[in-house]
Amino acid sequence: MHRKIISLLLGFAAIGIQLASSQSLSKCFFQKTCIECLDTDYACAWCTDESYGMYKSRCMTLDDLRANNCSESGIETNFNFSMLDIVQDDPPRDFDRERLEAVQISPQRIKLKLGKLEPHSFKFTYRPAKHYPLDLYYLMDLTWSMKDDRDTLVNMGDQLAKALANLTENYRLGFGSFIDKPIMPFMQTEAHRQANPCISEREVCEPTYGFRHRLQITKNTDKFIEKLKTSNVSANLDNLEGGLDALMQVLVCGDRIGWGENTRKIVILATNGYLHMAGDGILAGITERNDKQCHLSQDGEYTGTLQYDYPSLEEIYRVLVKSKT
User: Fold this and answer.
1) Are 144 and 201 in contact (CB under 8 A)?
2) What is the pTM of this model?
3) What is the superkingdom listed in this entry's lineage (predicted)?
4) pLDDT tens, position by position, 275-291
């Protein structure tokens, strides 16, 4: 009884193999070019033998081509179709100030050809380059509640420079600040409160603004600290801030911000509150979607703050992906 069951199973297996083989053959049979043949099925093979019969299909399974007397050297299959050619493989190299480049990954360029459904493995090596250029833009919430944080950053200016110097000797700094859209319900509209939104704190501060680009990215650390010291706080009315408006401008205004081409780019957004997002602008009657374009005046003021809605996190993400900033 057991022998009969085993015989039946073997019979079914043989039938399955024959069906799979015939299905592959039927897929292969009518293909007219080598590429079409190999792309049709992993089992398809192509005969390049010039002496091969004129009326025979050149696209069959490997076994069928052999059975039809295609020479072994004239058979192209998905098994031997893969090809890896290393085009450029410079060794790792630290940042070169003259070339303004570094080599951190090897190989740099490869040419890879794969057969259908065929995997191929190859190795990359990565070594971080020493003194690779770093552009750091400090984007700070300068609403009233951040006053102490601004003072702390000013006092830590020298420590910040030393910390960056430990990472790379080629670092640069930029600085900008944000408050919120200067319109109700994000700020109070009485004339005396517009002129001095910190009047309830019995202090004098700057009128509310959306985003202000204060310092183009520079190597001058002293200038960065000086801009921090001379940047006064302001205030808004609600507990949410306009940081995403500011971040979008930092990302899309590359020339104005001063981003380098071959640099590692970092934006530090410092805030102690939540941020307004897309859709919040409707509270002030601002319904036009953020256009993801640069709108900085010559003085660094964001001129689109009352025209465009806040961006969404998705829009910020897409700009990052597109620009590789």
Assistant:
1) yes
2) 0.71
3) Eukaryota
4) 999 999 999 999 999 99
